[in-house]
Write a structure and sequence with these properties.
The chain is of the alpha/beta class. It has helices at about 5-15, 15-25, 30-45, 50-60, 75-90, 105-115, 135-140, 165-175, 195-210, 225-240, 250-260, 295-310; strands spanning about 65-70, 95-100, 120-125, 145-150, 160, 185, 220, 245, 270-275, 290, 320-325, 325-330.
């Protein structure tokens, strides 16, 4: 069966090909009524955009970059899925880059995005990013960039995040309400936006319940599993916490493993909550209580804004910031059921 073309849709609906093309791209120039008419019909006839044809016609690559710290991470994998879904619907390919938490490699990835003439990039910052001069240069050149999850605080940009403060607050308050008195917080490098936001939520919950903030119970680490285990062992031996709240996927698994290896009972001796989208959290023994982020939705929102930027044709679009809710999943590691 021959593929349906934009020209076919236009003829069937009595519209111009340019109107159908803009409607399929979600252009602000087309009325919502016309967009719905075109999109409904396109779905009915199973229309699939042809990025190659579009790129030749528009002199654009019809491709966007995605830069993440780690592809083999459930959160980032789900976010990439969300970006790809929106990109495919709107006729774009994606090219994925991995920084490995290196700021130097992050710059190299961005340079590759530009040299390959991609139309824009969605990026989650590495754990060592401090110098944003190259990104700022791209912004001045009006190159479309959207940040998601790990975003810069030092300058304005398009940013899509989860409500890290509320997620950390909920996790910490849950541990307090189950009777824990000495709650340790294991977090990622302090340069990251997510680290600062989750630390603030942790502190706020302590303050609400009139519990002192003890900096000795807070440890910042890189993402090396051996380093995390050393930190956990030292923390437990020196501070003897009765609860742990960890702030990312890799921190959660490595910390959980270290506690088990020490022969400490969870949750009897130490209650445990992770800020993580691990898809095996419920399979651990005991199952791990978690704060989860809407990773796929974060990716979708980032892609929508990015492609809107690309298709705005130089029009000045105010910086957009969006924060999506997190969810606390209580399981047996923190004294819940399941």
């Amino acid at each position: 069966m021959e593929a349906v073309r934009i020209k076919d849709i236009a003829q069937s609906l009595g519209l111009s090909t340019s109107t159908v093309s803009r409607a399929l791209r979600g252009s602000y120039e087309i009325s919502e009524e016309t967009k719905k008419l075109v999109l409904d019909y396109a779905a009915k006839v199973n229309y699939k955009p042809n990025p190659i044809a579009l790129s030749l016609r528009e002199n654009r690559s019809r491709a966007i970059g995605i830069i993440v710290p780690e592809i083999a991470n459930n959160f980032f994998a789900n976010a990439i899925n969300g970006i790809e879904e929106v990109a495919q619907t709107r006729g774009y390919h994606v090219m994925i880059f991995q920084t490995g938490e290196s700021s130097e490699k992050e710059v190299t990835c961005l340079q590759n995005v530009v040299s390959r003439k991609l139309d824009g990039v969605a990026i989650s910052l590495s754990g060592s990013s401090k110098d944003f001069s190259y990104i700022r240069e791209l912004q001045r050149e009006e190159f479309p960039i959207v940040f998601f999850d790990r975003v810069p605080h030092s300058f304005d940009a398009h940013k899509i995040t989860a409500d890290n403060f509320k997620g950390a607050f909920d996790a910490t308050e849950h541990l307090i309400l189950t009777g824990r008195k000495k709650i340790a917080h294991i977090s990622s490098p302090l340069v990251l936006s997510i680290t600062k936001e989750r630390l603030a939520g942790y502190k706020s919950a302590l303050e609400k319940h009139h519990m002192p903030y003890d900096e000795n119970l807070v440890r910042f680490c890189q993402f090396d599993s051996n380093e995390i285990k050393r930190i956990i062992i030292d923390l437990i031996k020196t501070e003897k916490p009765d609860a742990l709240f960890t702030a990312s996927d890799r921190l959660a698994l490595s910390s959980y493993s270290a506690v088990i290896e020490l022969g400490i009972r969870i949750p009897e001796d130490i209650a445990f909550v992770g800020f993580t989208n691990l898809n095996v959290a419920h399979l651990l023994d005991p199952p791990l209580s978690t704060v989860t982020q809407p990773a796929e939705d974060l990716g979708k929102e980032a892609a929508i804004i990015l492609i809107d930027l690309i298709e705005s044709k130089g029009k000045n679009i105010p910086y957009r910031k969006k924060e999506l809710p997190t969810k606390l999943n209580v399981r047996r590691s923190s004294g819940g059921v399941g």
